[in-house]
Amino acid sequence: MFDLVIGSGNAHKILELRELLPPSRFKLTSLAELPTAIEVDETGQTFVENARLKAVEQAKHLQRWVLAEDSGLEVDALGGKPGVLSARFAGKHGDDAANNRLLLEQLRDVPDSKRTAAFRCFVCVAAPDGTVHIEVDDACRGVIAHTEAGGGGFGYDPLFVIPEYHLTFAELGMAVKNVLSHRSRALRKLMPQLIDLAEQTR
After folding, report:
1. Which of 59, 135, 141, 195 could in theory staple to 126 by disulfide, Cβ–Cβ 3.0 to 4.6 A?
2. Is 70 a known active-site residue?
């Protein structure tokens, strides 16, 4: 069984990753379970830079294999914002309610046809010496609603509408989100490479 640290302290992301990675093949440990884990400053200008930073620095510090990801929302009408600042768009890190309010405010006069957006996810897997072995990315496109809807998910999920379903991620629920989301798509790309890596390092 391949021992893999999930390089995130976000409980929602960890839950999604545990749902998507088969426990029969991988022993997953979150940063919350590792008292010696460090806080890596996300100083990158892009999702890929931040994912790489988190994987490499944590792997070298812990001397373990680390999977880290960086993801967020890019709204076309806002020139790609909030982008890498998605979690702290309104200032305070992780204040979903404030982030959603600010997003709606900035899109107040934007018509439906211009409210297109994409959730993007970049995943990086680094070895105990900090060497990057795998990098993948993917995206899920949608439209930003005018009001929040649904009680599931987290972050911008109550505002992110999947056009084919006419529902937000928060309304669709975890099972459907885990098929459609940017993170699940990136992880499906990752899985064959991760399984190969696990075989090579046995």
Report:
1. 59
2. yes
